[in-house]
Amino acid sequence: MTPVVSVILVNWNAGELAHAAIASLQLHETTLPLEIILVDNASTDGSADYLERLHPDVRLIRNSRNEGFARANNIGVKAATGEYVLLLNTDTVFSESVLPACLAVAREQAPAIVACRLLNADGSLQASADRFPRLRNLFLEIFGDSASAGAKTLRRLEGIAQPSPVDWICGAFLLVEHETYARLGGLDESIFMYGEDVELCWRALGAGVRCWYVPSARLVHLGGGTVNHASARAVLLSDRGRLRAMELMRGRRAAGVLRAIFCARSAMRAAAFALAGTARRDPALRKRARIHVEALAALLRRGP
Asked: Structure pTM?
């Protein structure tokens, strides 16, 4: 039977999380013919073999190197045969059926990109859709009250009771017609990870494809499944991804301003953590200072 939805997951050293995501998907999504494609980004922990043993019915594509999130998803989509494709993070957990409600909106509003409501592990709402980022808002988020900025996004999402259009949706759950994804060119492969979902939504809007948020369909998104967020690597990946996305969306000048904002952030945080770490003799704070020193050095070098 031809699948209605091809589900694409990208694995990099996240075997247990990917297993939980696939198992919960298969348990709760039983009303639609599905195809599950797992793209392994050259995992080094044996998780590809582990997942192949546990899920022989899942199609496994092994990359010879870590191609990044965007390219790996595009590889999976090219191999897909379903009418729709679902980009699904390995750190998601289904506790109910989500696809029928999202698929109904995708068909009714076609062409469209559709997302469900994402929840944190404790059941609280996750800021997984919003307006397109602007430099002013990013500046205030970084140097102002970031908690307040996040609260505004959550309040906007809490106020959505029916399927509604939004500017962008999180790539942890992104449902789109296969043909539409191909027409848009997929995720931009110049972005290794972070920001590629927002940039796709930006291009989609320019091509007449709206993003839709379906609050009645709920999915747990644990977040940070393959990245240690308390690391220089995580900061660098996030910065580089967001910088490239900003350049693609709003041009080099805007990306240059954002780079300056990131540089100021890392310089201030490196100094603050170093002083606090010395005063308190706290190695964890000194480690955070080193993370931002590394991030600042990388930002000052040429390149994305």
From this structure: 0.92
